[in-house]
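Slide 14.
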Amino acid sequence: MDFSLILVILTTVSGVIWGIEVLYRRVRQSEEHSSPSNNLVVEYSRSFFPVLLLVLVVRSFLFEPFRIPSSSMVPTLLVGDFIFVNKFIYGLRLPVLHNKFVDIGRPERGDVMVFRLPSDPSVNYIKRLVGLPGDTIDYKNKRLFINGQLVALQRKGEVARKDGPRAILASEVLGDVTHDLWLEPFSLGREGRYKVPEGHYFMMGDNRDNSQDSRFPQVGFVPEGNVVGKAVRIWMNWDFPATPQWARIATKIQ
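Slide 15: predicted structure.
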């Protein structure tokens, strides 16, 4: 179910009920008994409307929390990371309808972004922005080319993993962002050339050989209207039943 829609409905209904009750009391102002109603529905509406309105404004226009369910963005984001997504950095959008009504900024190469999956907008994905509108992206032999230019990559070492063979930890430079990624030396990965259409973005996971991203038809190019916001901060990590990783609290997302 669309939580944004539920929140809008609850806020609207509670606000209307509270508003009607306030108008009713004003009409009866001259009467002796003009105290607030003791009706349970009115009481709940009066109590919850300010809270619901505050949550709606913050979640729709400022910040929204998300939880990372998969390893596609390792090592930047781990399974169980709880993150804050900045929703106003790219512009203000109406809740539910997602129409932009204030244009503040544009996504930049290297941003870690949350977006609604083009094939199923009810599903949110998180990947790194690699290709801007009009770019030509080539990925071959585990190396990334943008408009024919090889993207700088520096190998940092190997990483032992519990759930698979060793991975190569490397550092990549995308625009003004330097970030870590994982590569699997014995995995073929997904290769190809991709021409990014206008008004769309090309996204890739930092766990390059274990990420369903814009290289796959299930995701493809992401329309600008599907962008939710920029992931900016980890506020905790807890992959239950494992213990929380306290060191990840307040970690900035690069």
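Speaker note: Helices lie at 3-27, 40-62.
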